[in-house]
Amino acid sequence: MKWLARIFNKRSNWSIPYLIFLLIFVVLPLVLIFIYAFQDNSGEFSLVNFRKFFASPEDANTFVYSIGIAIITTLLCLILGYPAAYILSNKKLCRSQVMVLLFILPMWVNILVRTLATVALFDFIRIPLAQGALIFGMVYNFLPFMIYPIYNTMSKMDHSYIEAAQDLGANPVTVFRKVVIPLSMPGVMSGIMMVFMPTISTFAIAELLTMNTIKLFGTTIQENINNGMWNYGAVLSLIMLVFILAMEVFSDKKEDSTSNDGGLI
Length: 265
What we know:
single chain, mainly alpha, MetI-like fold, about 75% helix, about 0% strand
């Protein structure tokens, strides 16, 4: 029992269960995706699945269409979420924490439950389930993920910058444009990534809100894996992961440039 006590007395050893979980459920699946992507059906090294993707206009068009839907959803969430986050973080406009809770509360409900509720709503008001319903469902499901990081950044904002700008004679519009927006950019970038990344890879929302009439890239991956085409599904997953990784690197560089500039223009 002494060796067990020595293990748990060292703080760094408490991370061992997390590391085991990370290796099994994160690292191992990524390694398997990479291995399957560069193999053919017989298990030999091959690039045939990559050639199949670039030679398949349907899958390439689905990928481009999914990016377009993700961009539209992200922009709508930003347009709706930024004013909401600003109002919630401004104590003069919103003094009750209940309003903050109401905006964040949907994040506590399973995304499939929220989507099924949206389907029921559209059926009740007799609106056809098509692209409009898909975008509405995307925005409804991912809007809290845009609001919360922006709200969190704004609530921790150093208001001495705002007071200094006001003392120098800046009007409210100038203060908002020159001070509030630059200081809130880290939250904006986090919100964009939190909305864009899951939107481009989702499939359940598209299936439920369009009755499978509109296919997103996540649906294509799911269909290939369900049909036993693991190698091609792994290639599609790898392409999506590389694209998301590139977006993450771009986001990090954007945040670094903002912080190096002091966040103010």
